[in-house]
Every structure is written in structure tokens, then in C-alpha cells.
Amino acid sequence: MAKQKGSSKETVVGRITIWLLKLLIAFFVLSLAGVLFYRFVPVYYTPLMFIRMYEQHSRGEKTRLDHQWVPIDKISPNVPLAAMAGEDAKFLDHNGFDEKAIVKAIEHNKKGKSVHGASTITQQVAKNVYLFPSRVFLRKGLEVYFTMLIELCWSKERIMEVYLNSIEMGDGIYGIEAAAKHYYGCSASELNKKQAATIVSCFPSPIKRTPDHMTKEALRHRRQILKGMTYLKSVKFD
């Protein structure tokens, strides 16, 4: 009887192990397919867009989704330059993670005054396109996973293109084309240096900060971005 019970337990454990392995393999195949799919296909919708529309509906507001995809060659060179200066100066050099920025953020956050993030542009793409806004450990782990897949499968130019087309830029406003039209009445290709820097300065908190409602912190951030743009001069993708 004892042998039969032990054998039964081993069978259950074996079945669970096989089931988990199949689940992991399925997740890897599906996630890889999703990353390869968006390597070529425009990202028209993201999880955050649907979350924001649900929040709007819950508040009794009219749901709003303003988003127009544009290829990167239809975006002013000032915009990716401002994005790098404001969000990720080492974007063209790192493999998806900025180790020095992570260490710096950890040291800052230990002081407890405010929370600083260290997400690269690639990490933000992973979060915006494939995940959801949360500080849950599992989500952060998935962000690391998708960041590595994106860096492996996409070019830097493609990462920047998806980033500028998917990021939240106001209440119901997503992507640089919609932002340019809403705030400046022009297309993304026409944005000048100051306009690009102004939009990017609002990225950390696009609901509280907008180009038509600049806080002192946003103005300070814009000055830093403009200085960074002068230092970077231009963005040349491989």
C-alpha cells in the first residue's frame, strides 16, 4: 500500500510538472510571436488605452481615444532626440537596461523623499504594448522578459517608432501625431525643437502635466531636455 501511495504522488507531481512545462512553452511561443508580429505591424491599441477608457466610463465620462499611427520617417527628428534627452540618453548603446541609472534610482529611493524610476525606452515599450501599469513584482518580471525579447527582435529605430506612437500624452491622447495635432495644430513631422521638448517633458505624468498646463517641474524638465538635445545633436539609427 505504501508503495502504491508513493507511486500515486509521483504520478501527480509528474503530471503537474509536464503541465507547467507545456504552459511555459506555450507562453514563450505566444510571446515571441507577439513580439515578432509588432516588429512589422503598427500598434493601433495597447492595454493602457482600454484601461483608461474603462476608467473614463467608470467616472461617467465620455470615453476618448485619440491615436493615429505614423511611421518614424513622418516624425520630426526633434522628437526622438527629445525623447532620448529626456527619458533615455543611452538608448542607442544599451541592451534594454541602464545599469547605472538603476543603481542611481535605488540609492535615491532609499532616502524616501520621492520615487525615481530607471526605465529605459525599451522597458516602457514592453510595458505599454504588452503589459499593464502596476508595481506588482510579476509585472516587473514580465517587463524584463519582454524587454529582452524586444531588444533581440527589433531594431532601435523600430523601438523608438513604437514608443513614440504608443505612449500616453494626455487624457485620451496617445502617440506623437495625436499630441502634435491636439496641442499645436500641426503634424508630428512639423514639430520644432521646443515643441518636441515640451511634449516629452510631460511624459513622466501625462495626465497631470500637458503642454497646455505646464507645472514648474515640467518647465524645469524641459530646460534639461533642451540642453540634452544640444549635447546629443542628432539621432542616427543603424
Mean pLDDT: 88
Largest sheet: 3 strands, mixed
Largest sheet strand order = 1-3-2
Termini gap: 67 Å
| Fraction of helical residues | 55-70%
What gyration radius follows from the Cα positions, in whole Å?
Answer: 21 Å
Order of helices and strands: HHEHHHHHEEHHH
> Strand share of the residues?
under 5%
What is the overall silhouette?
Answer: globular
- Assembly annotation: single chain
Low-confidence stretches: none
Number of helical segments with 4 or more residues: 10
Task: Let me know the number of strands.
Answer: 3
> What structural class should be given to the helix and strand makeup?
mainly alpha
What does this structure look like?
This protein is an all-alpha fold. The protein contains 10 helices and 3 strands, in the order H-H-E-H-H-H-H-H-E-E-H-H-H. It has helices at residues 2-37, 47-58, 78-87, 99-110, 121-130, 137-153, 156-166, 176-184, 193-201, 216-232; strands at residues 66-67, 168-170, 173-174. A hairpin with a 2-residue loop joins strand 2 (168-170) and strand 3. The termini are far apart.
Secondary structure: elements and pairs:
Layout: H1 2-37, H2 47-58, E1 66-67, H3 78-87, H4 99-110, H5 121-130, H6 137-153, H7 156-166, E2 168-170, E3 173-174, H8 176-184, H9 193-201, H10 216-232
Parallel strand pairs: 1-3
Antiparallel strand pairs: 2-3
Helix pairs in contact: 1-6, 3-9, 3-10, 5-6, 5-7, 9-10
How is this structure best summarized?
By secondary structure, the chain is mainly α. Helices cover 60% and strands 3% of the residues. Helix 5 packs across helix 6.
